[in-house]
Each structure stands twice: as C-alpha cells, then as structure tokens.
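DATA SHEET
Item: assembly model
Revision: 1
Owner: S.N.
Input lines:
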Amino acid sequence: MAPDEFDAFYSRSWPRLVGQLYAMTGNLADAQDVVQEAFVRAWDRREELSSAHAPEAWVRTVAWRLAVSRWRRARSTLMAWFRHGAPGDVREPGPEHAALVAALRRIPEEQRRAVVLHYLCDLPVAEVAAETGSPVGTVKVRLSRARATLARHLSDDLLGISAR
Amino acid sequence: MNGWDQQFRDALQGLAESAERDAAPPLHPARLRRRTEQRRRRRIVLVPSAALAGLLAGGTAYGLAGGFHGAQAPPAPGPVRPAATAPAVPAPADTRPGAPAPGRTSGPAATGSASTGPSRGTGAPAPTAGSPTAGGPAGTATALPLPLPTAQASCAAAGARTVLMRVRGITLRQDPLRGLAAAVEAVPLSCAADPSAPGGTTLAPSGAVRRIAVAPTAAVTTTAPLSTGSRPAVASLAELAAGLARHPGLLFAVRQDAGGRVVRMDQVYEP
C-alpha cells in the first residue's frame, strides 16, 4: 500500500472505525486510542494489509484485540488521559444513547462484538464468524443471547432512541 | 428482520454516528506513518542492545561463578551445593516381597501383555508372540501413561516418546546459573517374548543404565510405594528423589522431549 493510498484509507476509515469501536467498548477515548494504535500497526504491516481483502476489517480486528487486552485497557485509561485530556473532555454519550451504552455494557465482550459487526457493520453471520474466528453456530448463539439481554434492558428505551 | 431489530440497528447507528461526528483523526496521516517508522527504528536499536546487555550480564555472572575455570573439569562440589541427592544405587533384589529385581522380568502386573483391561494401554498394538522384541524404534518398550495405580504396563509398537524404564535413582543439583539440574539413572525396558508370561511377552532390560537429564518442570506422578491413596499423586522432583532413595528400581513410563530430556514420569504400579 503506497503512502497516499494509506493516507486516504486512514482518513476515510477513521470515523467509521471509531464509531464501531465506540459501540464495542462503550468508551470513546478508548475507541480513539485503540483505532489510532491499530493504524500505527497497519502502516508497519502495509504489505499484509495490501494483500488483505478487507483492510478495514484487519484494522478493526487489531483495534478490538487491543481494546480487550486487560493490560492495554488499564494502561490506555492513563494514556488516554494524557493524549486526549481528562475524561471530562471526552463527550459522554448523550441522554438519548446512555441507556443503549449501559445495555451494551451488560452483555459479554464477544457478544457485543458480534452485535456491532452484525447490526452496525451489516455483516452477515458468516462474515461475523470469519472476522471473529468463531464457528457460525457460536455467532448465532451469541447474537441470540445478546438480543435477548438487550431486549430485556431496552424494552422501553429503544423506541425512544430510534424515534429521535 | 422484525421491528425490534430495525429499531436496535437504528439506535446503534445513531450511537456510532455520534462518535463519528467529531472524530477527526488526532494524528495527521504523515505523522502517523512517521511514528511507525520511529517505533521500528527504536526496535532495531533496542533489540540488539538488549541482547548484548543480556549476553554481557550472563557472561559476567558465569565468570563470577567460576564457570570459565570449571568448564572442562568434571562436576565437583565447588560453589554448587547439592540440594537433594538420591543415591543412584542398584535396587536390592528382594527388598519387597514378590517384587521383581531390576533388570529382570517384571512381575505379573507389569507384564508385557497388551491385553491389560480397561487401561489406556489397550489401544496399543500388541507384539506378536513370535517376535523377540516389539519395542519402539529404538528397541525399547513404549507405553502410554497409566492413570491408575492398578493399571498395568503394556507394550506398544511405536509412536510416542514414552518409554518404560526402571529408574534406579535421581540426582538433583542446584546450579546457580541454570537453576535446578536433575538427571535420572534408569534402565530402558523392552518387550520380550515369554511363553510362560500372561500375554506371551514380558518386559526385559534392553540396554545398560542410562543417565538422562530431566527438565526442571518435568511432571511426576507416583503411586505405591512412593505415595498412598487410590490415585496417582503428583510429586516434585525432590519428593521423587527422596522416594527413590528408599525404593530404587521402580518402574516408570518416561516421556522425553525432542532434545532427549525427560519431561514426564509416571510411576507404573507393581504389586
């Protein structure tokens, strides 16, 4: 991948990936931090990235792995503080999204990842399975369980959120 | 897709868009690429430096411990203090009633029979009665780890690096540089034809006493007389050394890694 190609890819994919990682992690500062780090690594592996069919999926997977790393999570809180300012500077989810973020935090990480890939990235179950490295059946179970939990916690809020 | 799914999709989309709206990349693409290059350059410098520092520190420590002087000398008790030593003495022939002497045919429980009941060894191909030895590639008897004290040794054709051995002793030495250094003295066994034995084969010595290095992390399970209870007990190398000092010449399924070091020892019960 040539530098100008990479720059275009970076600028184009950045907002989308931050949005997706925000939905996965529930923390905007963390999302920005891990996406940034994933892009730094992406340039280091640009040959691998060029041959990949979906470079955005590659960056998303790396960012997700960074986000779930406990060590990274603990460290990134501190680093995010220095890089992006105090958490107060980072916009908290508005009242219209607070319930959704809270509900997403209630489901396990892998379920949240499957939900975001399926509902937000519009990936079919087979592609979610490919990206997460899980069997299709497992993804279906994760989606089903996540949906059940989210439906329980968002029974009234969801109508309000989507109506806005 | 039902209504809930669509509402949820819209809500999720709204959440992501709220993050995207002011999510301009904090780093200019060129700066991001520069950061990657800087990191790579740092790695290139740091890795050899760390390796060199480690080499110097290791060499200094080795020199301080007298390693350069004693490299050609036979192992002697100098700065090295033996932590625990089990004398590798030959097993007395009849210390246990009914126990087979080391280097001789095993007792009825440790026969070369392949039909050993429900133990894990039953899946192994049995040696034919006509063949004098039916061991592994090295001519030694291979056996599967035997989980229960009542399990019996069985001859297997080949495959795993597990060999049945009569262990005479284990020596432990605390090396200041390399940590625990352990070695077993053992006699490898092979399956030999014996029409009088059940199954037609017995375990017999297939070579001289060998001294084999043991990995410090080797797993050891013991049964009677080294431990009590109805199940094999996990033991440390020090416990094994102490036990073998009292009861030398016990039968073990010994597993070695590709480098020949013992990584697992499972005692095989001999009533």
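QC remark: The two ends of chain A are 41 Å apart (CA to CA).
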